[in-house]
């Protein structure tokens, strides 16, 4: 006789229920808190790498000195006149150049597997990205203060009100945050931090130098003026000039904000999608 050793398992209904995975959809308040935590993480890294703060200070000083004393006399007639014209453009250029830090930091985190660890946390998927941008906003403000301080020391004079200066800070931060999603996408797509510098400045050099940041539009060829007049860097530089030394502001500020909305609307979702695909 053969014994049947098969032991019948418990009915399916008796199996313990498996808890559903925790949702990562965060409320706006949770998203803001998580993003601020990630921003603090980004800023704390400066404590362990003080040379980064030195780099944020030296770059704006170098640009102001070089453009004022090398090109000032040839373009503006005098260094003082050129400084009054160019500082708004230098602020815009420096702000966009600093967004490369966002891309480099993201590429480094991805290469080290940091975002793989973030996936195990119950946080919004966009929190690490938005937190990185928020941290870089603080870097932007530091660099802007250094730029203005050096400009004033060299003879730049703010001829508007303190409220207008605050508006210039706000406009610059708003546009930079929106534009930073372009750098976020670049940082996610780049396979290593070294390539970020190459790709980033390949985009930023034509965007910043093919503008009126450093030379008046009317001095350029007609075919180039068509692009320069609508270039977002031109609109931002003109708005900053108007807010700091006087001139038209409203149309340039509105155009700058519209460009910012376009950058965020296009590159923000693409950056989040690219991150989900990569990790």
TrEMBL record:
The lineage of its organism: Bacteria, Bacillati, Actinomycetota, Actinomycetes, Pseudonocardiales. It is a multi-pass membrane protein. The chain crosses the membrane at residues 53-75, 81-103, 141-158, 164-189, 196-215, 249-275. The keyword Cell membrane applies. Residues 51-278 form the ABC transmembrane type-2 domain. Residues 1-26 are annotated as: Disordered. Its main location: membrane. Keywords: Antibiotic resistance, Cell membrane, Membrane, Transmembrane, Transmembrane helix, Transport. It is found in: Cell membrane; Membrane. This is Transport permease protein. Belongs to the ABC-2 integral membrane protein family. It comes from Actinomycetospora chibensis.
